[in-house]
Amino acid sequence: MKTRLRFKIIAALICLSLAGLLISQGYWLKGLYVSSKKSTWDNIEEAMRMADYMELFLRMDSLTAKKFHAEINPQFKFSRDTTTVLADSAIQYTETAQELDDYLQIIGTMERNVQIFMHQKIDTLLPVDYSRFCTLLKNGLQERGIMVPFRLQVIRQGVRDSVLYTYTDASGKEEAWKNSVRFTHAIEPGQCYYDLELQSPDWVVFRNMAGILISSFLLFVVILVAFIYLLYTILRQKTIEELKTDFTNNMTHELKTPISVAYAANDVLLNYDETTNDKQKKYLNIVREQLNHLSGLVEQILTLSVENRSTFRLQPETIQVAGLLAPLIEQFKLKSDKPVEITTEVPEHMTVTADRTHLYNMLSNLIGNAIKYSGEKACRITLKGTVSSKETTLSVTDEGIGISEANQKRVFDKFYRVPNGNLHDVKGFGLGLYYVSDMMSKHNGNVTVKSQPGKGSTFTLHFKN
Description:
The chain is built from 12 helices and 11 strands. The protein is of the alpha+beta class. Helix 1 packs antiparallel against helix 5, helix 1 crosses helix 6 and helix 1 packs antiparallel against helix 7.
């Protein structure tokens, strides 16, 4: 996968993660807001109900202190009709109730009926103290953390509703009442009720959610900063990767010219200068070997650099394997500094569909490694080809030092070389097998290795049919 495409995928995943986080946080906070708002609204209604109760009991205390027992006791009795209605209502609810919420609803309904009945009896003896109710309501709201300006009115219902009492605990500008919320509480159903208007109580909900909102915001900011820093780091790495690629391309192209010149000069001194003695020829041969080695490394690095470009394209063709192997085998026999015995077991008419240049390079790398890592044994290499209905395979088998099982998993990694303390004379950058693995993947195939330390290795190219 190219660096540019990898960067785009990472950037897209980061953006999707941030969007998902923002959506999930928003959804969760919205649910929390709705729940908190309902709780606040319930608290306001509870404050009105409790203020009404307390005002009722304070009037009862006042009547008791004034020795109104005779008037209260006879008056404050449930009539037969009222008792019957309450009892029938309780029985009806009990028969249908199945859960705790249903029983709580029954209790609440009965409690409300009792409160209304108390108003009917006590209000005839002593009028409602609206000012006291207002004070009790204000204290009740403050105890529940609801400290917002409010307006309270007592409305008597009729053909035209009339206002019996008004109290305004307002502060700030009049525009703030545009988002007000109204609550009502019946004093006597159908006759009189409290009308409570609160100035923008939403801020109470947000105040209760302040800790969660701030922590959620800080968490999102931290994650956003981390993602931005990650993108910045990846972008920097991408730029460094591009600079490295450009440097590699320029360096390899620039090295080819002096290597060619040095190789030509060395060849002239070695083959056409009659004054060169044996000792000089010995050193010139060493120079030629090193130039060949350096030239091969430059070509390998250049090939890897080219195949990683976005413009890289394979040029597959049907290749007769035996015809490709013959000159390759001769080349290695001539340039090797030790006797090499290469046996081929490839059917004469066996073909594969591949890029000729890259197939040649892959086989060259495998044969070259087999020679380099032959150790002190005689260098014997077997090239074998098989054809089945599913795949065509080409394998290179040697009798060299082998590879341990732990290292077999990493031999195809870029720049990885098997650590061997006694093989410092084997030079390379660990690119050969990486190149083979990479090119086989581009051919929709793969390369495998089987090896035992001290008994040799077999590298197999698998081409799908």
